TrEMBL record:
Superkingdom to which the source organism belongs: Bacteria
Keyword Hydrolase recorded: yes
Keyword Ribonucleoprotein: no
Keywords associated with the record: Hydrolase
Matches recorded under Pfam families: HAD_2
GO molecular function, one term: hydrolase activity
Database matches in PANTHER family: HALOACID DEHALOGENASE, TYPE II (AFU_ORTHOLOGUE AFUA_2G07750)-RELATED, HYDROLASE, HALOACID DELAHOGENASE-RELATED
Gene3D superfamilies documented for this protein: HAD superfamily/HAD-like, Putative phosphatase, domain 2
Protein name (record): Haloacid dehalogenase
Length: 226
């Protein structure tokens, strides 16, 4: 099921000043769907493979090699291990969403920026470098030892920069992130690019947006404690 609605849920209580904006990488900032579909040979098979992989990472908890999970998911849906090898070989073909670089450039003078991603160290840093903006922190699941939505990756990013959850915002690409960010007390904006439906029981995001274009204005309009 999909939903293309845009939700504007302004916070009712003032919040601490925002110092840090953290992002999911492979869905919120990068269009990883198109590459997966290309490798799989169709949108249907690409999404089927991607969902099998996402289910594995969300249920994994403690880190297992990212590349192994991707390969296991490819085998599970009938694509074979060679699909995972091709995806890895073409990893640098990942493309940022059209407005992502401009939005990051607009935010950089005003906030610390970081990434928290379900990925290996090697592939995570390759992907982060495609944005062309120097991040203040990049936390991969391999580095944290756990896959999101376990709280550990989000907490590691905050602790590495010495920023309290109340002084940060997370921009999610998947509503599953909301389960983890709520445990950390990290306000979350859901960049729901392809119109997915949130899973049952998912906490409500601060805002839901179909693109990143309004993010600078959204952040600046969040009421802060005087």
């Amino acid at each position: 099921m999909t939903s293309n609605s845009t939700t504007n849920l302004r916070p009712t209580q003032p919040r601490a000043p925002i110092e840090l904006v953290l992002f999911d990488l492979l869905t919120a900032l990068l269009d990883s769907w198109t590459l997966w579909n290309s490798v799989a040979g169709s949108e249907h098979m690409g999404r089927t493979w991607r969902m099998a992989y996402l289910k594995a990472t969300y249920g994994c908890g403690s880190y297992r090699p990212y590349e192994e999970l991707v390969a296991e998911a490819a085998i599970e849906v009938g694509l074979g291990r060679q699909a995972a090898a091709e995806l890895e070989a073409r990893w640098s073909e990942l493309q940022p969403w059209a407005e992502a670089k401009a939005v990051l450039a607009a935010l950089k003078p005003h906030y610390k920026l970081g990434v928290v991603t379900n990925c290996s160290e090697r592939l995570g840093h390759i992907a982060a470098d495609l944005l062309g903006v120097p991040f203040d922190v990049v936390v991969t699941s391999e580095k944290a030892g756990f896959y999101k939505p376990d709280p550990a990756p989000y907490r590691m990013a905050l602790e590495m920069l010495g920023v309290a959850p109340a002084n940060a915002v997370f921009v999610a690409g998947s509503a599953y992130d909301l389960f983890g960010t709520e445990k950390v007390g990290l306000p979350t904006i859901w960049h729901n690019r392809i119109g997915l439906t949130a899973p049952p029981g998912a906490p409500a995001p601060l805002l839901t947006r179909p693109t990143l274009e309004s993010l600078p204005a959204d952040l600046s309009s969040i009421p802060v404690v005087a």
